Amino acid sequence: MGRKLLIHNDHVPNIHTLEVYRAHGGYASVEKALKTMQPDQVTDEVKKSGLRGRGGAGFPTGMKWSFLAKPEGVPRYLVCNADESEPGTFKDRYLMEKIPHALIEGMITSSFALGAKTSYIYIRGEYFYVARIVEAAIAEAYAAGWLGKNILGTDFSHDCYVQVGGGAYICGEETALLESLEGKRGNPRIKPPFPAVAGLWGCPTVVNNVETIAAVVPIVNMGGEEYAKIGVGKSTGTKLISASGHINKPGVYEIELGITVEDFIYSDEYCGGIRNGKKLKAVVAGGSSVPILPTELILKTAKGEPRLMTYESLSDGGFSTGTMLGSGGFIAMDEDTSIVKNLFTFSRFYHHESCGQCSPCREGTGWMEKILKKFLDGTANESDVDLLWDIQSKIEGKTICPLGEAAAWPVAAAIRHFKHEFIEIAQKKKFVDISHYDRLNKIRA
Amino acid sequence: MKVTIDGIEIDVPKGTTILQAARMIGAEVAPPTMCYYSSLKTSGGYCRTCIVKVTQGSTANPTPMPKPVASCRTEVMDGMVVENTINKDVLEARKGVVEFLLMNHPLDCPVCDQAGECHLQDLGYEHGAATTRYEFPRREFEKIDIGKYVQLHMTRCIMCFRCVKVAEQLTDNRVHGVMHRGDAAEISTYIENVIENDFSGNVIDVCPVGALTDKTFRFKSRVWFTKPVDATCDCKKCSGKVRLWMKGEEVLRVTARKDQWGEAEEFICNTCRFERKNTSDWKTEGPSPIHKSSVISQNHYENLNELKVKIMKQQKALGFTPFDKRP
Ligand SMILES: Cc1cc2nc3c(=O)[nH]c(=O)nc-3n(C[C@H](O)[C@H](O)[C@H](O)COP(=O)(O)O)c2cc1C
Ligand code: SF4
Ligand code: SF4
Ligand code: SF4
Ligand code: FES
Questions:
Q1: Cα nearest neighbour of A396 on chain B
Q2: Domain range summary for chain A, segments of one domain joined by +
Q3: Which of B48, B94, B161 to mutate to test the pocket of ligand 5 (most atoms within 8 A of CB)?
Q4: Is B261 an 8 Å CB contact of chain A?
């Protein structure tokens, strides 16, 4: 069994309450940090731990924290990104729903390190019931003195607020999130300046994912060096993986970074293999925006080495033969899956979620969806594959925020590895049933 | 700070953007702009037509920037090297942007009020492909009146957000902005609210296309049949420095004076723009200087052609299929 540091207590009855959480060692990191450490020491431990952002980009958290500007007399903020909207990713919800105090504890300890007197947890609109759970936990924490003035009798005071979003994927992009938090339209900002210099209300701000912040708790408790012993190379610690698709046991798993992809898919500890005895066809390893890989490339790298669940191994081979760990949204597809249909679903999503600020993403995402729809309708031509390729290449890297890339990469990867499926559909004018989308559209309208 | 754009070096003060530096060098190297407007804060960065390649970040850190950058929102660093018209990836990417901008656009210039002074028309002519590969229905909207003076035709809007910045920065009661998201986003007034503000008419001048137009432009006339004359009046609200668009002795339209880049030199008030339509209201200064980029300029399309030929030559040297030779 792999070690678990984040959700090891998820089956303890009433672990969502402060009483039970505390009885299982909760809030020890706050005690340790506030009473025995200086803020910079906490940051140092996070640096030593090698923790990398769990929201998708994998940026080293300790380094991000040390970039935070600290001008005199200007407030600093910690903002928790709980907008989790990437298709295939649902680990933050699990954590907040099951063990809300793990996040709040992380918020307090991290805020102490950053010198933030105020922090916000920005939760996506559809997670309204999760927001209620987190708010109830915050109320408990205030009542017990873990939040508020002079925590544990020290001169550290902290307030933490929950803000519920309106239900837009783009508000997960950190600067769009900040705009939304300020009460504006959730449009990504043009960077620089970066949030570390001018974030929320123009003040220095750190934005971190739910899981990143929760991981600070075990890091402070066990020490950064101990934490860094788990994992392989620059992929240290444990990671929550949202496993979905045609596997026997979908769900949220905490893995030690470094296990093999094969083990993750087929072992009983995790996904338990492909359901109904089918064969695996392809995997989207890190949420809908990362490149899809066919079985032979997801189990082994192009060099023939076993592919590991680490940042480095998954991206081995670049985009031509590799992918990304991303946010850990692991979607497995069996041999009966239509890659084109799956791609249509993703493209439809990105089209719907584009904020519309920059031309390539605003126009290109819709165009790609419409062309993919032609494939499903059986009216596409072979030349449409080249057109799709060209459009994605004209979006990628030319937009304000990475949503443009997120929309372009899946298209590029599907064509790169499964071009024959597009061609076959175009030649046979094969019709793919998507009537359930029309029903969905009716429900929406 | 020294910056090199398309092989031409220039010394600029700190804080200068690549676009500003390029404009200082001249029109040959200046990237086209559709959303940037020097006098509007936070404008630019949206349309992506002005993207350029930074092949050397600075003397201190010579690594190239991985992605093309929006020249209007990127400040120069000492020793930066930028490629615009000499870089085939930039030209290709820009062509892509133009195609995206035209894709949901009606392209019915013959019946459009903006024809002849439309930046999109120019952009398509200079940088675009002759045809678009978009085969689906384009988005369409009804024309709506937003107030007594201004008409909004969203069908032609390219979402440059300049009008929103005008509303934000020049008027005191913003009632119009962006609604909805993605390609369903539209410029609108909240519940058909009316724009009533002394400076609201400036949205017409900043609009690069024919989406916001002047309803008082009487006797609808093609711009090339009108004669621009610079004039002044004693105005209590604005500088009173305007451009009159005359036909004979008649004032058909009043606008701000535009500079070489098509931007208003000074914003004017609604009284000057919409209500002073008699020659007696104005003291004329003589014919307006006509810039190369204006269709009134006799050589407008010849100049564009010259530029096009020049770019094509460069492309050929780079082994790049010229745009009109493409399928
Ligand atoms: C379109 C888009 C959506 C995103 N959605 C999320 C999200 O839901 N949750 C998240 O933590 N990060 C999301 N991110 C990444 C954030 O911008 C940011 O990098 C992250 O919150 C940083 O936290 P970390 O360093 O802890 O990973 C998104 C990015 C983009 C471009
Ligand atoms: S890339 Fe898309 S989502 Fe991001 S700013 Fe541009 S239009 Fe908005
Ligand atoms: S806005 Fe410009 S490009 Fe569009 S129809 Fe009018 S003149 Fe033509
Ligand atoms: S109406 Fe004109 S100025 Fe306003 S966003 Fe559209 S194109 Fe730009
Ligand atoms: S002019 Fe620079 S992005 Fe539009």
A1: B67
A2: 18-229, 239-334, 339-444
A3: B48
A4: no
